[in-house]
Amino acid sequence: MGKSLSWGKPQIKYRVAGTTGAWITMPTPVENTTKLTTSKGSKLEAKLEGGDYQDVKYQRNTYALDFELYMHEGFEKPISECDGIVADNYEFLVIPENRKSIGIYIKKGAVSAEPSFDTQIGAKMKYTVDVLRPDTEYDDENVESLILVSFSGLTANPATLSVAATQNVSSVTIGDDVDDVISGASWLTATKAGTVVTISAAANSGAARSAKLLVISGHSAVYVSVSQAAYVAPAPNPLVATPASLSFTADADAVGKAVEITSEANPTYSRVPSDVEWCTVTRSAKTITVKVSANPNSDERSTSLTVRADGKEVVVPITQAGVSE
Asked: β-strand 146-150 against 156-157: which pairing, if any?
């Protein structure tokens, strides 16, 4: 059986360079138009008399990625341009149809666009990505502008993570020292240290979501899939007094009547107005006992018990009948 090749339909993903936004999938290119062209670096020669070399030095290769898209009905430019000029630099991933073969990672590329038209094919848009060296690593001679990556051979343990809606930090162990970690979503960030990738998922306030991290080690890459649960609003924490009101006869009640409080924590406040001398309140945990003295008047009298717990407040009306004449 032959070895896996990178032929077939590739998947092209892109995003603005230097950002942590989600990768966007490019529409499928026109057949046989996705090509990487290498321009060999210039050769510098130091020759001796007689034509022999004293030394030879080659400049770095340069690279350009090209692909074309059909501009069909309803077509929208995936990368905006004005007369061929594209404002931002972009990152690109070219993932082969056969994931066991070689793909391309461009960390920074200058993009240009060329629309074309003929009556046989119609309108097309050609994008050219001239590969640039990463700014922050320009002085490092070992940093490659273009990385050819194999999507097989590198392992991640675990390769799939399911995390809660709350902010979550998890670790993944990679089969070799990690060179780069590329997040597919702004809510998902990662740091690397040796073979360990520490993943941080921001708290989720909406629907369930998922994203992938692309971990690169040398010329190998592996995806780590992360799914985060949807936000679930906490159940309401009611503050309830049972019974919701109290009624007393005109007689004194030295035993009192109990009010049971339903709350998360014990009440922090349970009182009647300070100028009400005929009604007293005592509390034990979530049980409040209300006592009244005899009402010497024929008129009904009333007050209210205020209870506070869990940052909420409930009011229990209290009435006492007047004495019968």
From this structure: unpaired
Task: Record the pTM.
Answer: 0.60
**In this structure, what are the phi and psi dihedrals at residue 137, rounded to the nearest 5 degrees?**
-120, 20
**Per-residue model confidence as pLDDT tens digits over 118-129:** 999 899 999 999
* Three-class SS of the chain: CCCCCCCCCCEEEEEECCCCCCCEECCCCCCCCCEEEEECCCEEEEECCCCCEEEEEECCCEEEEEEEEECCCCCCCCCCCECCEEEEEEEEEEECCCCCCEEEEEEEEEEEEEEEEECCCEEEEEEEEEECCCHHHCCCCCCCCEEEEECCCCCEECCEEEECCCCEEEEEEECCCCCEEEECCCCEEEEEECCEEEEEECCCCCCCEEEEEEEEECCEEEEEEEEECCCCCCCCCCCEEECCCEEECCCCEEEEEEEEEECCCCCCEEECCCCCCCEEEEEECCEEEEEECCCCCCCCEEEEEEEEECCEEEEEEEEECCCCC
- pLDDT tens-place string over residues 110-163: 999 999 999 998 999 999 999 998 765 545 566 777 788 887 778 999 999 999
Residue 199, number of CB atoms within 10 A of its CB? 20
Residue type, 295: N
Q: Is 314 exposed, middle or buried (0-12, 13-18, 19+ CB in 10 A)?
A: buried
Q: Which residues, 6+ apart, have CB-to-CB distance to 84 below 8 Å?
A: 112, 113, 114
Q: Extract the tokens encoding 217.
A: 């080690």
